[in-house]
């Protein structure tokens, strides 16, 4: 690969979102990535929704809470984030002195996009006395307008940590928000956002599957709509769902979340059967199109050339970090 090729690829990076360079198809990418990890003292953090090959090469695989805890505590020089943009931003905010790389900058999130900060600022003005709790699936800018972040693992604890006489705005996920209202009995003011993947599940097809598999447990992520959650035997974050499948006696599970998690479920319990909950259409809509933008080739290129890198203005870091720190403190106290 010539220096000129690299210079051209770097120039188009912002438009494309990734380094568009040819990768020798005979390369053993796994071996090369392992080599780069050692040479550069890099750590690969991967979310459960990444493709299986990426999960298998990661140093740490986890849910949004685990990934942010790991990003805050690692002593690696480079964090390579195999996940989406808001996750890499969170890692940068927690470890601003480290280089944070994301294989494809266009790996966004429909939920984060459903809450544009300028509109949220106006919304928030209507409730000046309310505490703002934001799901971590939001932009770094939104975190600057937030008092406490939460993830699906700690959301109930975060809401319950707020005095009962305090009003709460919850953003951006209306489905997780409705679930929290039911779970905590608090009256949350909800922002009307949602995740495109978790809103695609078909009630009718799930019902049919449950009839065909009467012994299967139906498990769902709280980003799903309430008519889906009402059917669930267990509701939890990706880590919560994974642990449930390990601990529960059932040997069949219908899983309503992004299908990438099934890779870890099958690895942990090879004798059990996992059926991805079907979407409305015949598409693969239970795969997150943003998460799946990352590939082994892009991961290799980004580690080799240390691009694309997440860069954040100091103001965003200064004003956004307290909301994440509060979340981590409350989680630690709760033993999460
Ligand atoms: P958790 O990682 O908290 O389970 O959330 C899932 C998700 O949608 C991440 O984008
Ligand atoms: Fe965002 Fe949904 Fe994809 Fe998670 S699964 S990254 S919430 S679009």
Any key phrases for this structure?
4-stranded parallel β-sheet, 17 helices, Rossmann fold, 336 residues, 14% strand, 12 strands, binds iron/sulfur cluster, alpha/beta, binds 1,3-dihydroxyacetonephosphate, single chain, 3 domains
Please give a structural write-up.
The protein is of the alpha/beta class and 336 residues long. Helices cover 44% and strands 14% of the residues. It is built from 17 helices and twelve strands. The protein has a four-stranded parallel sheet, sandwiched between helices. Helix 15 links the parallel strand 11 and strand 12 (273-276). Helix 6 (85-94) packs across helix 17 (314-333). The termini are far apart. Bound molecules: 1,3-dihydroxyacetonephosphate and iron/sulfur cluster (SF4). The site of iron/sulfur cluster (SF4) has 13 residues, from helix 7.
Report the portion of residues in β strands: 5-15%
Distance between the termini: 46 Å
Provide a count of the helices. 17
Q: Which overall shape is indicated by the principal axes computed on the Cα atoms?
A: globular
Instruction: Catalogue the ligands.
Output: 1,3-dihydroxyacetonephosphate, iron/sulfur cluster
Mean pLDDT: 96
Q: Give the topology string: H per helix, E per strand.
A: HHHEHEHEHEHHEHEHEHEHEHEHEHEHH
Order of strands side by side in the largest beta sheet?
A: 2-1-3-4
Compute the number of strand runs: 12
Radius of gyration: 20 Å
Any idea how many domains?
3
Unreliably modeled segments: none
* Largest sheet data: 4 strands, parallel
Binned, the helix content reads: 40-55%
CATH superfamily descriptor of the largest domain: NadA-like
- Write down the CATH topology of the largest domain: Rossmann fold
